[in-house]
Amino acid sequence: MNTEEINQYLIDVFHFDPNFTIKDAKNPHLFFYMQAAKTLGIEVNQIPGTTTAIFKKDERQYFIARAETPLNNYVSAHIAGKKEQTNKILGLNNIPVPKSRKVNNIGELTEAYDEFNFSIVVKPDKGIAGRGITILPAREELQNAWDFCNEYRNEGSVIVEEYIKGIDYRLLVVKGKTIAVAKRIPASIMGDGKNTIKDLIILKNIERKKANMTEITIDDELKRRLKNDRLELDSIPNAQQTVYLRYNSNMSTGGTTEECFNEVHPYYLKLAEDACKVIGLNLGGVDLITPDIKDPTVKHGINEINRAPGLRIHYFPDKGLPQNVAKDILISLFS
């Protein structure tokens, strides 16, 4: 489904207001909550000039700010916001996670690089939206990875994780139940046998801009992915050849999504539910890496849990049908 088809689906099936689209909203996540509230008979009023709204029904009243809801208590949300703490707690509860360690300088980063067999992810402990992350750097790129992470770590630590090869999935858990699963696909272009990769990125960005989506940035991370695949920006891919441009699959860096709940082995659904339970989250976006979502025996791991999961990933999949997750979350909130 393209953007126009999805918008019409939200109007026809989810009964969203046809006179107010996501492009009009100050924040996409709050937009979904506000639209879902109206269909549930929940009074909603956005505080002027802010990305916060008041939701009222009967004698109850709650605030939602951007994607932050009252479903999670402060301590659990605080823990989930720290990747290192989350990783340790999950590991102590026998939930599979990538090996990781905190590093304080470039020397410790180099030690971790050797310890994890040259296959690492460098990330800020408190990072968001994939910022500051370097995936699979070469030894000569470690200083750049350190400097890049320092730009975005927000006074947190620099974390080094073991790189788990596989596909990235987001499992949305609400009050102990997984309600949606999205396969997250890194930014990519499709070759036509004529244009260079750089030209195809420019053309792709024109499409993404029309759909009100973040454009694909040509940066060191993108160039590293191409280099590891023996490609350059001036390479001309064959017709119908898919070229992946990044290792991370965040929508903010050009990633796309596919709704795939029905493909998931029950083991992974329960794994996400157990992970949120261990941290104490009533609402969590569990980021899982596995090479096969149908097979629980392959090497896999949870690399993060989002305390305020974004909703656009579930409403605007590139494949599959939109999922009305804001409605389910609000029902849980007011139940």
Top keywords for this entry?
single chain; 335 residues; 5-stranded antiparallel sheet; 14 strands; 33% helix; globular
Explain what this protein looks like in three dimensions:
- By secondary structure, this protein is α+β, with helices and mostly antiparallel strands.
- It is built from 11 helices and 14 strands.
- The strands form 4 sheets. A 5-stranded antiparallel β-sheet has the order 12-9-8-13-14. A 4-stranded antiparallel β-sheet has the order 4-7-5-6, with helices on both faces. It has a 3-stranded antiparallel β-sheet with strand order 1-2-3, with helices on one face.
- The radius of gyration is 20 Å and the shape is globular.
- The model has no long low-confidence stretch (mean pLDDT 92).
